[in-house]
Specification:
434 Repressor (Amino-terminal Domain), 3-stranded antiparallel sheet, alpha+beta, 2 domains, 205 residues, 6-stranded antiparallel sheet, Jelly Rolls
Amino acid sequence: MSFNDREAQQKASQGSPLFPPAVSLGRALRQRRKEIGKTMRQVAREAGLSEGFVSQVERGLSTPSLISLCNLASSLDASVEAFLPQAPQRTHSVVSHASERHNYSLEAEERVYQLLQRGFPGALLNSCITHMPPGYVSDVTRHEGEDFLYVIEGEMLYEVGDRKYQLTAGDTLHFPASLPHRARNVGQGEARELWVGTTRIIPER
C-alpha cells in the first residue's frame, strides 16, 4: 500500500464508528440467546458455527467475523444492527467514493471492514473491503448463497470444504458459501480483500 493510500485510510478511520468490544458483544449475544430461550448448541447449528466457538464469543475470548455476526444475529431472531453501536447509513448510491467510507472494526488490532453501499433497493449483491493484519485467521463459517473474493493486496490462504487455495494480489475465488470456509493472512504484511456475496449483512428497512 502506498503512503497516499495509507494516509487516506487513516483519514477515513478518524471518527469512524466501531463495533463493540469483544466482551460487551459476547455479553449482548448471550443475553439475547437467553431471552429467546435457545441453547448454545441450537444457535451454533443455525449460525453454521461450532458450539465451542460460540462459547468463546459469548465469553469475550473470540470475536466473530462480520458474516458470522450476521449469522448469529439471524439465529437469535435479531438484526445485526442490534449489536452495533452505530449502523451504516443506507444511501443506495450507485457510486462508492473511497474518501467517504467508514471503517468498522471488532478489535483495534483485528480486521477492519469497509462496507460498500448496495446501489439500489432490493439489490442482491453485497460487498465489503476487509483489511486483515499479518497472522489473522478467521473463524470457520458457512451460510447460504455465494461468495466471490478478490485479493487486492497481500497473500491469503482460503480453506473451502476440503480444499485449500493460496491467492495473491489480483487472484479471485468464487464458491458456494454453504461449504465451510476460513481465511488466513499468510503474508508478511496487511492483506486486503474485496468480498462480494449474496448474504445481506445490513438488512433493508
